[in-house]
């Protein structure tokens, strides 16, 4: 199963680490707008690899986790919407669910 994590800060990185430690055969692909966050996630082993664009990160992912500030959700969803695999699950870690 391919899992894409968008946002590799504290929450996204922690989820990535937990998935990798589960040793369940998941391929964990990450995306971060800040190159230093992507590098750190790779260094810590939170992801198998990172991608340079949102579109390439979500390509063929069965599960997409958006771990970014809530204010970025609308823009991210608009960008990835047409590139999601049919039947994929998209979820987020935002604490608020209203505009």
From TrEMBL:
The keyword Oxidoreductase applies. Residues 1-99 form the Prephenate/arogenate dehydrogenase domain. GO terms for molecular function: NAD+ binding; prephenate dehydrogenase (NAD+) activity; prephenate dehydrogenase (NADP+) activity. InterPro entries: NAD(P)-bd_dom_sf (IPR036291), PDH_N (IPR046826), Preph/Arog_dehydrog (IPR050812), Prephen_DH (IPR003099). One of its GO terms (biological process) is tyrosine biosynthetic process. PROSITE patterns: PDH_ADH. It holds the Pfam family PDH_N. Transmembrane segments: none annotated. Keywords: Oxidoreductase. This is Prephenate/arogenate dehydrogenase domain-containing protein. It comes from marine sediment metagenome.
